[in-house]
Every structure is written in structure tokens, then in C-alpha cells.
Amino acid sequence: MAEAYPWQDSLWQQLAGRSQHAHAYLLHGPMGIGKRALAERLMASLLCQRPEGLEACGQCKSCLLLKAGSHPDNYILEPEEADKAIKVDQVRDLVSFVVQTAQMGGRKVVLIEPVEAMNHNAANALLKSLEEPSGDTVLLLVSHQPSRLLPTVKSRCVQQACPLPSPAMSLQWLAQALPDCTTDERGELLTLAAGSPLLAVNLQAQGVREQRALVVEGVKKLLKQQQSPTQLAEGWNAIPLLLLFDWFCDWSSLILRYQLTHDEAGLGLADMRKVVQYLAQKSPQGKVLEIQDWILAQRQKVLGKANLNRVLLLEALLVQWVGLLGRR
Question: What's the number of domains the chain is made of?
């Protein structure tokens, strides 16, 4: 059974409680809030032969086959390798599944995640199935970045936004999910996960607080000219590139915000408050805007899985960062 999260209660009632189901749903929202679990829960409910209320019974033949991963009327489409594209040949295989008759006499249900992993050709190959899937077929599309989807894909689906849970609800859930962390540590993890509770759990598992401490220490040494951009870029080899760009993007936003408001409550997490304040006082605003634009552009390349030279990219980032103080 897919996990049911407390912040999805009303969303679930709304989705599963429909008297007639659409042929395609697009579940979209930030990463780490349980969209995949929601889609799997709906998939189980739609395929179940004896649903109990809105939930799958978990006991019928259909539920048992689904649990075993061998349901003939269920199809899951995802990248063959993590972080790679969904290829057009994979979509063609899916399309031939959609035109077949359901083997168990009920619905066919397709789950695609993440939809934005389809390249242009793959997305176009899917359009006909989205517009008029044959028989009683429901397609569940899960997207973490709906802005990257073709408008023609979005327009053929019932779009369902999946919002972030409230901080209070997330922290309450994290207290059970991460009982060994202190309240402050859970709050810090949730901030680092931009409010996504499941992402906070993943970040804790990958040692994000230790990684962050290493980066913060490095940035401080860089600004004091105790370490060079090259040394740091090589020393941060184990830290995910996207995480680094997220942090620098966040810090540049906090610098700008402080330059505009002088509000000390808006300086972000405690570990970088003094640095953010110092850079805000010493850096020309035009330079901060420039570096922020550059960081956002590089972050898009990282998100788009561009073939980047990691060390050179980080060196360029750190050279620009030091450049905020007029030093090169």
C-alpha cells in the first residue's frame, strides 16, 4: 500500500472521490511532498476489484498482483536510469500498451514520473494517448517541474496542484519520522528542504547538515583568502551540484533582501547570517543581481542534466562570489 500522508487528506478526498474519473491527471508540485505516493494510492484504488470506500482493499486478486508488481493492466513509465531522460522508444511501448484491451476486465492505469524527463519527441509521441486513450484507461502524470512541460501535454490533463504542507504539519510529521533529531535540527532540515518534509528526511539520510557545515566553513575561508576557489571546488566533490547551487542561490537572494530591507530577521539560517549581512553591506547591488542571474542560469543547466565540468563550474561560481567584495 502506498503511504498516506496527513497533509494529503483533502486532496485525496477530492481526487479519489470523483464520481467519474478523467482519462489523464497531472499531479504537480514541489519535490518531496508525496506526489508519487498519492498517484500510487489512486492507481491502487482505480485497479481494485472491491474498493473499500475510496481505498483499495489490498486483498483482491488485482491488489495482490499490483503489490507483486505483475498487474497486467498497470504500466509504470520512468527513466531507465536515475536522472536520465524518458526516451521516445519507451513512450512507444507505453502507447502500444494503452491501445490493448484490459486483461482483467477493468481499467488500465498508467503512472508516468517525472513527466518532465520526457524529451520533446517522447512528449509528442504521448499526445495521442493523452487525448483519447482507448478503453477505460487512466493516465497519472507526476511532475516536479510543470514549467518544463509542453503546453499541449498540460492542456490534455486535469491539473491537480499538490501544495506544500504547512510548516507546523511538516514538523509534526518529522517529529515521528526523525525522532533522533532535536526540534532545532528538524527545523533546519525543513528549511534546507524548502519546506518539503520527505525531502528533509532524504537530506538527513545523505548527511546534508555535515555537507552544509563543510561548505559554510569553506565560504568563510574563501572570503578571508585562506582557501582558493580551486581547493574548495575539489574539496566539495561529494556534495550534489544542485544542492550547492540551491544554497548559493538562496544566499544571493538573502543578500539582496537585506540590502533592500535591513531586516535582520530575514538573514536565513544561523550558520551564514553574519556572512550574508557582511556581503550585503560590502557588495554593490548591481553585482549581486549579476551573480544571482548567473547562478540561476547555471542551476537551470544542472537541472537540465547538461554535461558540465563540475570543478570548472564551481571554480567559476567561487571566483564570482569573491568578486562580490571587488576581489578576484
Answer: 3
